[in-house]
Protein 1
Amino acid sequence: MPRSSVIAPPPLGPLLRRYEDAGEPLSCEPVTQGLLNRGYRLATTRGDYFLKHHLDAPTADRETIVRQHRATQRLQSLGVPVAPPVEDTTGDTVAVIGGRCYALHPWVDGRHRDGAQLTTAESRRLGALLGLVHTGLEQVMGREAERGGAARTYESADPEETFALIDELLDLARGRRPRDGFDALAEHRLLERRALLERHAHRRPPPAEAGGWVHGDFHPLNVLYRGDDRGAEPAAIVDWDRLGVQPRAEEAVRAAAIFFVQPAGKLELAKVRAYARAYRRAAGADCAELAAAVQRVWWERLNDFWILRWRYQLHDRRADPQFPAVSALAVWWTREYEAVCEAFAG
């Protein structure tokens, strides 16, 4: 079931008393709600802040949040546009009050821009920015695995497990009453995807072994831009909750598939090409690494039904509007696989 929308308001008095010069609260308005956190625009007598409530972070997980904060502090010193948290009077960046974890960040004026709003030159800068993130994380976090330094392998999805999930989701979609257009589209895409998987099962990628530190959730809602349409520049990369170790080039491909997907489910390949070339130069990635990442992310998309799982298993419809483009992209990508691979790795 989806999370309850009833969440206690942040304890502003005890929170702000931890900071030397944060001022007195004037207003506190919710600005975003996600699975991992809730955000507020907090106005005080000293200015505006972004207050983040880490919903799924118990006191015991404070160490993970602190690691994320330290990473952004170090990245900022390397010139990466981020918004590290404000330190309190003891130098801490995580406030634990009543068993809940909060962090206070400077407010960044900016707006989100998807790939349709980016020019080719701006797409190139986006690729270079992600490359800077990856090389910067390598400097500040090192090459060790997320916990303990052990080598990891990254398995690709097992189609047999996907077939079982498709059958389950088909039963749920067909059994909905009253049935609507979304349910009909879901049934069509599930049957279509099963046929594609049966046809391409032999193309399942082998396990990946090379991993590096990545943002983990690099998409338009986590990049803020300042400036107008004639000269927008990235102001801040936000939401580092999924900072971790993964194959780096896969994040580059996955991000492009979100930024540059069109409503009809196609990728703007000219912008993808500019983005990918800039990423390869900035990250020091070669064409073979990007080609392997394209195969793995394509396979991931063929086996992924997160939007339908949210709708039918969790009864959460927030992601429903994304389904037409996301589901069409998997089909189009399969048909245009060589063109997509050339755009990323050519």
Protein 2
Amino acid sequence: MTREVTQVPHHDADCRPATPWQRITETFRTRRTRRHEHAPPTRDTGSPAPEPVPGANTLWRMRTTVQDEPGSLAALCAALAGQRVDILSLQTHPLAEGTVDEFLLRGPAGLPAAGITAAVESAGGADTWIERADAHDLVDAPTRILGLAARTALDAAELPLALRQLLGRCTIRSQPAPADAGRAPGGLPVEGALDGTVMRLRAPEGGVITVERPYLPFTPTEFARARALVELDARLGPRLPQGRDELTLAEGSDITVRRADTRDLEAARAMHERCSPHTLKLRYHGPVRDADRYLNHLLGPRHGRTLAVQTASGRIVGLGHLLWDGDETEVALLVEDAWQRRGVGAQLLGRLVGMAAEAGCSSVYAVTQASNTAMVAAMRGLGLPLDYQVEEGTLVITARLGEVVASGAEGLGSTSAP
């Protein structure tokens, strides 16, 4: 319904073991989430009504449930016309009883949402939901869905973002399948399951993708669209954009920055083996022995995007992760000791932030230790407004993206511009 960013949480107890790092970041995430809850939209958006401007209009998205009988839609149209509200588009979502009608409306700037809702309910509408829309919503539904399918076809990491833009404000979680089970967790049927505000879809890799939208029940039509995107992803299999950046560092070394996924798992583990315990501890905030256990999750396209820095010989010497985390996005870097302080981290971070901006993220944050001066310097080097939160030696730095230009990201397959 909306274009608000809701990302795939990567702090999932089903996806990786509990560690001191997870407990630390979970504490920060809980506190931050309290400031960014998925609150259900009210009947009015709560924003103050703008000063009336002669000839000005406001766009609205609205859903209402009506009886599936002759004349019901005509009554709604007449009620909206009585408020001088134009219907720009209409989609119908048939239910077992009744129909959910989804409208894109254009009304006078001085008309509040409550006035539109009252008119609709007087004409027989029920369970009406309304919020502000913008120019992006003027794209018709078939065109928008085809665009989401094209993005998904190009990049496996696009599936969570495509589902989010298809379904609006929602929480998406990925749960892996048990290693010894032939079915998805919980015995989920192949076709998935829909239960009010929760839909569960069988993931291409055999697990479950759970989508929850607490403020608005999903319709069978939305369920069918989401299932079609997941089936497309399953048919195409693992895939990444092939773009890469060839760079020469200031001290003369040639490197390549490219996208990475679980197929780079062994090379990433080899890099871990070359990293000192101190470097691994700065990155993972926990026992060094647990570091390898995170890699399969971090490289998975369901949880975000990964960039790898590769030498001329093909060895991976740095990894940068952009991780979907609820309403927020985390960035994380690891550069092996021999390649630190050469600008590798800055190259990774700049491209990750560009990808986040293209994906519509308003900010990114990094969880590190207050003593990690290299990461602090890299965040400052972005030239963006920064917020700092410190507790017991753990530092969370949040960069507000604003109008960041996604330079350097295009060739690396960042295709999610809203």
Protein 3
Amino acid sequence: MARPRIKDVARHAGVSEKTVSNVLNDYVHVSDRTRRAVQEAIDHLGYRINLAGRHLRSGRTGIIALVVPELDVPYFAELAQYVVREAEKRSLTVLIHQSGADREREKAALAGFGSDFVDGVILSPLALAPDDLRAHTGPPPTVLLGELLNEGADHVAIDNERAAREATEHLLALGRRRILTVGGRDDGCVGTAQARTRGFRRALSGAGLPYDPASLLPVEAFHMSDGAEAVRRVLAAGVRPDALLCLNDQLALGALRALHGYGARVPEDVAVIGFDDVEGGRFSVPSLSTVAPDKEAVARVAVDLLLRRIEEATRPDAAGSPAAECPQDRVVAHRLVLRESTEGAAGRDGVW
């Protein structure tokens, strides 16, 4: 059987082909009655939009790339789901690529993988240098996520410094004073960990408390094993914190395991808070307090920005417009989600 076409839908619905096109493109000036008739005809005939033809006519492939450091990190896996959903709403297909935080792979993604098969790239970089971004002057359009680079291209992130400050202030409000930051970095570089560490320091300063560089527990990576190892290391050295600010939920989940192994009660002895609000933290024992970025908003804003840049790139009349020359820096919402790991009994004085 031949594939149904727009003219078949129009004939079945008793409308013009232009009206069918208006319905397919969600044109507002179509009556509800007509819209229902066209939709019923589409469903009855099994009509599907010819995306390949549409993209060919527009000079696009209809494919965008999402490039993240690691897919087995729950935050990136959850974010990828939201990006796919947002892209599907706009008839786009998402190619998901894992960079492994490798600079050459991230540079290849920035260059569209050396081909024209993606219309644009959403990139969460960990290894790119500022010069890499400055050298990127051609296609494809790119939207950056995170804190590493935020100039010369559209950028989407939460306010990581503010979020960490709020999380630390929550711990301070509980009476905790021996706070360690798992994954903290104060090396003067630009990145998410550094921004969150600044928030930690500002919360201490706001409370009139001194900052001790030894309160930062460095990690090799942001996995559960790294969080567990960092906490075991300080506990074995005799350090007894009363709170842990963990710079992602994976580190926090590892920290919970290490504390359990040393007989520390959470939150009675040690309050623990993480970042990212991944699913595992909702089911841990105790459940994990965390900073929850609006991942759905990150995905929606990133896809919208990228689609706008793609449209600009395929419209010659817009190439020199002011909008095409001004990168957008978008900050999306976050919230503090308080669960059992900070919301139990008050900490005890002395050493546990």
